[in-house]
Write a structure and sequence with these properties.
about 80 residues; mainly alpha; elongated
């Protein structure tokens, strides 16, 4: 049982890293500050669809990772 939870936790950690790396940065950098940022309709629409889904999946995968970590810790403390 401990091996199964450990494997699930490893898969969850790899998914979490991948989802975080796929997200776009929130700041536009120095060029956006100096030149100004003009958001177009397409940029706003894309941010709502893809980035929102990635942010939501990051929260869910992170929550599953925390639960698996607590479960694994409890199993190891109980000596299973």
């Amino acid at each position: 049982m401990v091996i199964l939870v450990t494997i699930l936790q490893l898969i969850c950690a790899l998914l979490l890293v991948a989802v975080v790396l796929f997200q776009s940065g929130k700041s536009k950098g120095l060029s956006g500050t100096i030149g100004g940022i003009a958001d177009s309709y397409m940029a706003k629409s894309k941010a709502r669809s893809v980035d929102a889904k990635l942010a939501k999946s990051t929260k869910w995968i992170g929550a599953v990772f925390v639960v698996l970590t607590l479960a694994l810790n409890c199993m190891l403390a109980a000596g299973l």
